[in-house]
Specification:
Blueprint: H1 6-9, H2 17-23, E1 28-39, E2 42-54, E3 60-61, E4 64-66, H3 72-89, E5 94-100, H4 109-122, H5 124-128, E6 132-133, H6 142-152, H7 171-191, E7 199-203, H8 207-219, E8 222-228, E9 231-234, H9 241-251, E10 261-263, H10 265-269, E11 275-278, E12 297-299, H11 308-316, E13 320-322, H12 324-327, H13 330-344, H14 350-374, H15 379-397
Parallel strand pairs: 3-5, 3-6, 4-5, 7-8, 7-11, 11-12, 12-13
Antiparallel strand pairs: 1-2, 2-5, 8-9, 9-10
The structure holds nicotinamide-adenine-dinucleotide (NAD).
Length: about 400
C-alpha cells in the first residue's frame, strides 16, 4: 500500500491523473536469490530485492537493508518513502531501496563480506552505471559500503563509506544530527519550548537513535530513556549519553547498563516525556498504543514508525508529528554531499555536511509549516504535498507526462 494517500492530498493540491498513475507504481524491481558456498559444509542463502520507485529527479537513492525481516513489500515501501524524502529535501535524487534477507548477527564479518560481493555481482549494472546510489541502512555499515566500493570503483555512487575511503566526515552522525536539528525546530516553532526544559525518549540506540540522543543532549535536552533490541533504560534525571556510547562500544548493546532502571520498549513509547523519537523499527506506534502516547511531539527517526491508523489518533489528540520523510532526511542529504564531493574531487569537512543538512531540513520544515497552516492539514500530509508537487514538475520537465 502506498505510504501516500493521494485522495487526501488532492483535497489541497492538484494532481494530474497521469502523475498519479506514474507515482503509485514502481519503476523497476529486481528480485534474486543469493546463494554462496563458503566451504564444503557452509552455504549461505538469502532473498534479495532492489526497487526503484521513481527516478524523475535523479538516480535511485536508497540504503541497503540487511535483515532477516526484509521482504519485497518492505523494500517497496522504503523505496517509495525515499522518493518523497529526496523531493522534499530538494536534492537531485530519485528514490530506491534494496534489501538482503539475512541476519547479519548470525554470520561472521568475512561471510558478510562474501555476501556483499555476490550482491554487487548480481546488480553490477545498477551500481556501475550510477543508476542506483546505495548507503547504509539497518544492518549495514560504512565498512560494508567500503567493501561495495572496492567491488565497483564508483566513489560517487557508493555513499556512506568511511571517511578514509572517500567517505564524508559527518556521514555516520548525519541522520541523528538531522533528527535532533528538526526536533529543536519543532520545539521552538511549534511547542514554543526551550531544550533545557525538555525531556526526551529515544527508541533504538543504533546509528540513528544513538546520535539523535547525543545531539539532543548537546542541545540541552534531558534524555531520560533509550532502548535497543535488548530492552530500554530510564533515568528520570537524564542518562549520560556519551557514557552509554562507551558502554555499547565495549559491550555491544545497552543491556546490563546499571546507571538506569530497566524498562521495556513498549513502556518507553508511553513515557510522559515532551519528545519521543522512534529510531528503530516500522509500525511501533499503532492503533493499539497511539491513544496512550503521552509525548507532545513525535519525531520519526525511523522510516514508517507510525501506522496510518495511529496517525489519525495522534492528530485527534493534538500530538505533533514530524514525519519520517523530513525528520530522517539528514542521511540522504549527507549522501548527496558525498556524491557531489566524489564527482568534484573536493575535500569536504564535517561542518559543511552539517550545514547542508540544517539548510535543507530547515527549508523543508518551513515549507511544511506553511502548507500546514495554509491548508489546515497535518505535518505529514503537508510534507507529502510538497514532495508530490515537486515530483509532478520534475516529471513534466522530463517529458514523462
Ligand atoms: P541500526 O541497525 O544501526 O540500529 C537499529 C536499532 O534498533 C538498534 O539499536 C537495534 O538494537 C534496535 N532494534 C532492533 N530491533 C528492535 C526492537 N524489536 N525493539 C527496539 N529496538 C530494536 O539501524 P539505523 O541505521 O539506526 O536505522 C534505524 C531506522 O532508521 C530504520 O528505520 C532505518 O530505515 C532508518 N533510517 C536510517 C538512516 C541511516 O542513515 N542509518 C537514515 C534514514 C532512516
Amino acid at each position: 500500500m502506498p505510504s501516500v494517500d493521494f485522495e487526501k492530498l488532492k483535497r489541497c493540491i492538484k494532481i494530474p491523473e497521469a502523475a498519479e498513475r506514474i507515482l503509485v507504481k514502481r519503476e523497476k524491481e529486481i528480485s534474486f536469490n543469493l546463494t554462496i558456498m563458503l566451504d564444503e559444509n557452509t552455504v549461505i542463502e538469502g532473498d534479495c530485492y532492489v526497487v526503484y520507485h521513481n527516478t524523475a529527479r535523479g538516480p535511485a537513492k536508497g540504503g541497503i537493508r540487511f535483515s532477516p525481516m526484509v521482504t519485497l513489500e518492505e523494500t517497496r515501501d522504503l523505496a517509495e518513502r525515499m522518493v518523497w524524502k529526496t523531493a522534499l529535501a530538494g536534492i537531485p535524487f530519485g528514490g530506491g531501496k534494496s534489501g538482503i534477507r539475512l541476519d547479519p548477527t548470525k554470520i561472521t564479518r568475512f561471510q558478510k563480506t562474501a555476501v556483499l560481493k555476490e550482491f554487487v555481482h548480481m546488480i553490477q549494472w545498477e551500481l556501475r552505471s550510477g543508476a542506483y546510489v546505495p548507503a547504509p541502512d539497518m544492518g549495514t555499515t560504512p565498512f560494508d559500503m567500503a567493501v561495495i566500493y572496492g567491488e565497483t570503483h564508483m566513489p560517487e555512487s557508493i555513499t556512506g563509506k568511511p571517511p578514509r575511503v572517500g567517505g564524508l566526515p559527518g556521514r555516520r552522525e548525519a541522520t541523528g544530527h538531522g533528527v535532533a536539528f528538526v526536533s529543536i525546530m519543532g520545539l521552538q516553532e511549534i511547542l514554543r519550548q526551550v531544550p533545557e526544559r525538555t525531556t526526551v525518549a529515544v527508541q533504538g540506540f543504533g546509528n540513528v537513535g544513538s546520535y539523535t540522543a547525543l545531539f539532543l543532549q548537546e542541545y540541552g535536552c534531558k534524555v531520560q530513556a533509550v532502548s535497543d533490541v535488548s530492552g530500554g533504560l530510564y533515568n528520570e534525571k537524564g542518562l549520560d549519553i556519551a557514557d552509554l556510547f562507551e558502554y555499547t562500544r565495549l559491550n555491544g548493546s545497552i543491556a546490563g547498563y546499571d546507571k538506569a532502571e530497566s524498562i521495556t520498549n513498549e513502556e518507553l513509547l508511553l513515557l510522559d516525556v515532551d519528545v519521543l523519537c522512534p529510531c528503530a523499527l516500522e509500525n511501533v506506534i499503532h492503533e493499539g498504543n497511539a491513544a496512550d502516547i503521552k509525548a507532545r511531539m513525535i519525531v520519526e527517526g525511523a522510516n514508517g514508525p507510525t501506522t496510518a491508523g495511529a496517525d489519525a489518533v495522534l492528530n485527534e489528540n493534538g500530538v505533533v508529528v514530524i514525519p519520517d520523510i523530513l525528520a530522517n532526511s539528514g542521511g540522504v542529504v549527507a549522501s548527496y554531499v558525498e556524491w557531489r564531493k566524489a564527482k568534484s574531487g573536493s575535500i569536504t569537512e564535517a561542518s559543511e555536511t552539517y550545514h547542508t543538512i540544517d539548510d535543507r531540513i530547515g527549508l523543508a520544515f518551513s515549507q511544511m509549516r506553511e502548507y500546514n497552516q495554509k491548508f489546515k492539514i497535518d505535518n505529514r500530509t503537508a510534507a507529502q504535498a510538497i514532495a508530490v508537487e515537486e515530483l509532478i514538475c520534475s516529471m513534466r520537465d522530463r517529458g514523462w507526462m
